[in-house]
Every structure is written in structure tokens, then in C-alpha cells.
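Annex B. Sample input.
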Amino acid sequence: MRRRASLVLLALAVFCAALAPLLRWYAYPRLAKIPPNQYQEVVLEAKDATLLDYTAGMEPKKVDKVTIVQTLKGNVEASKEIEADAGKDVVVWDTLTYIMGPDGKMVSQVPERYIFDAHSQDPVHATGESVDGDAVTREGIEFKWPFFTEPRDYLYFDAQTRSSSPIHYVGPRKFKGVDVYYYEQTIPWTKVSLPKKMPIEGIDPVTFEKSTGTTLWYSTKAMFWVDPVTGAPVNAEQEIKQEMRGGIAAGGPDGKLTVFAGHVKMREDYSEYTVDLVKSNRTKVLALHTYAPAGLAAGGLVLFGLALWLEARGRRRPDDGRPDPVIA
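Annex B, continued. Sample output.
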């Protein structure tokens, strides 16, 4: 009976030992991916900001708050179409950045289509990749870092400038109880496109720029607190400045008009929700990548030890108190 039990334990030990690396190096790379149907909404605010009032003589004014609503929606149908040509799992995010003044009226809105590899988060170039209707070819990451983010610099795409530049790893931090990596990217003053949707109806930004000679300039310092396991930012902030120069802005100080200036932060309720979501996803990724394989490997060793112990006991002869026979 003991011998049979030891064989069963030995078989289970071999099964666990074989399943552990299979789960880690075969299942994890295939199962750890961004779902194609993800939907997320984040509200950010810039308090005590400066905002250009288009309806009152084009004057920059101090306002209590500017609200930015960012929505992200996975486009499953577009993902399937691109996957057929790409030969790999692809995610298509249709995003919208909607900016409102203190009165709740639209200041601008910028749609994006972001196409990337579901596993590595590397960009996938396909028809439809765009910012505000303009075709772009992204390099580097945007919105999300790769799973198991490394403490190093990455190339990060900025939608305003339609270009990529390094985002620098600054060091480890702790944000609301989560151990994170902190990154910063600074973009110097750069001429950018006017948004196609502006507060004044009927204005075509290209015609406006050509006819008035007015250009839009932008600079920012972007800050991200990133969970290194999932690669998801648990917090994001930006110090943004936008100016009109030349043309109708010539009468402003130094020939400039401040369009927007403010420190954009995630609203507290959305910050709490984001942290809870990342914690939950972090546990799932670690379970697949670390906890389950390590547990199976440890369990296999324990079962193997028990099998050896039972086998040794089964081979040991019972002691009935009689002397061993003498063989002549």
C-alpha cells in the first residue's frame, strides 16, 4: 500500500515539476495581454489655470478649473481586421481627449487611434493610426508601459507634437501603498497643429493659420508613476503650456497669447479607482508569472520528498525482537 502511495506521489511531483516551467514560459507569454475590448474613462483637472477666452476679446484669464476627460475604448472589429494581416494579437484603442472650461463648454477635443501589440505594447503600424485625423507613425510606447517594466528610459509618443522622445526613469517611488517606477519627459517649446475642433464654430485650423499667420506652440513636463508588474500608470500629471504666436497674438505680451497653462492632475476619485484596478491586475499577472509556477515547483519538491519517505519506510523491515539469523 505504501509503495502504491509513493508511486502516486511521485507521479504528482513529476506533473507539478513539468507544469511549473510550462506555465511560466509557455502559458504566461500567451495569456498575459491587453484585452481588445477594454474601456476606461479618466477625469483630470487643472486648478487655478490660465485659459484663453475666445469669446471675450481673445484674452487669457485665470479660471478655477479646467477639466479634461479622457476616454479609451477598444475597437474589437478593427483589431480582428489588423490581426489578419499582422499575424499576431493586436489591440486598437480609440481615445478621445475632451477639454472643458469652468462653464462646462468645450475648449477642444482630440481623437486618437492607437494600434499596438497586445503582449509587448510595441506599436503596430496600420491604416487608421492617427491623432486628430492626421496619420501618424508612432515609435515607442504611449499610455502604457510593457509588462514587467524595466528601470530604464523608454521612447514615449507625445500626441501634441506627433513625435517620440525619451521618457526618463528617475527612480523608485511609492504611490498610495504601491511600489512604482517614476518617469519624467520634458518637451521644449514646439510648434504644433491647432486642434480641428475649437470653441468657435466654422473655423478651419489650417485656413486660420494661413490667413492670420497665427501659430500654436506647446511645451510640457509629463510625469508618470508606473506599476512595474502590469506596466500601467497608477498616476499621471502634466505641467502644460500652450501659446499662440504671431498673427492675432501679435498684440499680446512679447507677441504671444497664453492659450492654456496649468498643472493637470488626475481627479482623486479616479486616482483611487485606478490604483485599485492596477492592484487587482497586478495580482493576476503575478499569479500567472510567479506565484503559480513557484508554488507548483515547491509543491513538486514536497511531493517528491514524501514519495521518497514512504518508499524508504516501505523497504524498512519491521523489528519483531528476534535476533537476525546466522548464515554459515
